[in-house]
Amino acid sequence: DFLCISLVNGFVQLRYNLGDKTVVLQTSQKVHANGNTWHSLKAGRVGNEGYLDLDGINVTQKASPGMNVLDTHTDFFVGGVSSLNLVHSMAVENEPTSFTGCIREIVINNRELQLTVTDPKGGANIGDCDGTACGYTVCKNNGTCRVESSGFSCSCPPEWVGSTCEQSIHCSQNRCGFQALCIPQPTSFSYICVCALGWSGKYCDSKIKFFIAKFTGNSYIKYTDPYYGKRDLQYSRISLNFTTNQTEGLIVWMGKGEDEDNDFLAIGLANGTLKVVINLGERISVPLIHSKYSTCCDERWHFVTVVQNQTCIKVYLDEELILFEDIDPHRKYTALNYGGICYFGGFEIGRKVNIVTTGLFQKEFIGKIKDVVLFQDSNKIQLMKAEGYNVYSGN
């Protein structure tokens, strides 16, 4: 499988192969070859349907029915590859040639790549396209950059201040406490404080402790499993208690939640019933939904356990087995490589559940969680010692 974007005779081409047939899309207009004009390019696919947009002019094409997942398992290359003979012959029109020009602001699946010296895994013969201290996006929030003898300076729009226009004027004199986030509220010319784990109050200045975590809908806890390297990932288990009055919400996501390569096991609510989704590496999520209407949303405590025995999944609700399914009898992938990361209630501030989970779950969790146990550990997870925001005591 591959997906390739290239420049051919002045036209931009998107080529992709999902394992059965190569699809080729080409823009209707050429790019300027004067080297002074920046072009905006959007390309990708939804299932087997590809799209290519150059400066607002869109081209789409649907592949023949069949494969609809891109399975590459390789590094992502920009501008060229370490050896041109690695490029598949169907990915380009003629002999592969490295790109000459400037590239900026690359966003893959809503995540921007940092095109710096240190962030990529490797590269060669790359320089700064701008050539000045201003570079690209030095000044944030539409600030204007000026080159000066000492480096650069930013002229900021009225709503922003700071050396790079990085701070809202509404947060410039904020009183938010330890590790709290200041969220500007321009309509009311004010701000609100989002408290780090273990703090509460209007300005996050009150220290708290809890054994029951209360989630308010814009909350999350990110727990890093210290024993991940010693786990037998073919036999995973997670159990917890939860209570809520909501019919939608992500309770827990075992996995990195960064891109479609990541394995995960997720538990949440959908239409008032318990929903469990697991992906062991196929990039095809298998949702398991409790068929009958449950009492998950009645504000009572409920105990849920999910057991993964290679590809066999068991789900218990209040100690009753409600789901049992072998998601892949062929045993192609049998391990849950979740990276040692567990999210509870949602994801980092600004990352929406429906986007990160690609629609598998619609909302962040509102309710309480307690007594979380991973695998066969004798001790419960100490949620207070994890990373998180906007989580309060539900004791």
TrEMBL record:
Keyword Calcium: yes
Residue ranges annotated for the Laminin G domain, each copy included: 1-129, 210-395
Stretch forming the signal peptide: none
Domain EGF-like: 130-166, 167-205
Record keywords, A-Z: Calcium, Disulfide bond, EGF-like domain, Glycoprotein, Repeat, Signal
PROSITE patterns for the chain: EGF_1, EGF_2, EGF_3, LAM_G_DOMAIN
GO BP terms, alphabetized: developmental growth
Cystine crosslinks: 102-129, 156-165, 176-193, 195-204
Family annotation (SMART domains): EGF, LamG
Any matching Pfam family: Laminin_G_1
SUPFAM superfamilies: Concanavalin A-like lectins/glucanases, EGF/Laminin
UniProt keyword annotation of Repeat present: yes
Name of the featured protein: EYS protein
Source lineage: Eukaryota, Metazoa, Chordata, Craniata, Vertebrata
